[in-house]
Specification:
single chain, 4 helices, alpha/beta
């Protein structure tokens, strides 16, 4: 399991790239690191790139439900774009995770079109 967290000052976005198998502990670790970097830079926009992550079947395995993200330190003012490979296979399963989450603004994007995620974060 590897990940990289960096702040993109020109876009004012924290970018997280995950490689390898995903589990709760690693998501918690990179999330807390990302939130810390964001707060240091007065930033509230995030991209979490799971296109190279190994995710067990099921959308809940990415640990991006509202209560989990809140537990990791994300706030209701944060805007989070999540990149998934092959999102077209079943986009509703990912979006359904956050239907009842009113505390944050989360949207899923196909990993082949990162520009859509950047554009959405700039809205």
């Amino acid at each position: 399991m590897e990940y990289n967290v960096e702040y993109l000052p020109e876009k004012k976005i924290v970018f997280i790239k995950m490689l390898g198998r995903l589990n709760f502990q690693i998501v918690e670790q990179f999330s807390k690191e990302a939130v810390k970097i964001a707060r240091q830079n007065q930033c509230s926009k995030f991209i979490i790139d799971h296109t190279k992550a190994k995710i067990r079947e099921g959308a809940f395995q990415i640990h991006a439900a509202g209560d989990e993200l809140q537990q990791f330190g994300f706030q209701n003012t944060d805007k989070i774009a999540i990149l998934i490979s092959d999102l077209d296979d079943n986009p509703d399963s990912y979006e359904s995770i956050n239907i009842n989450s009113r505390w944050s603004d989360i949207k899923y994007f196909d990993g082949t079109n990162i520009q859509k995620a950047f554009s959405w974060l700039d809205e």
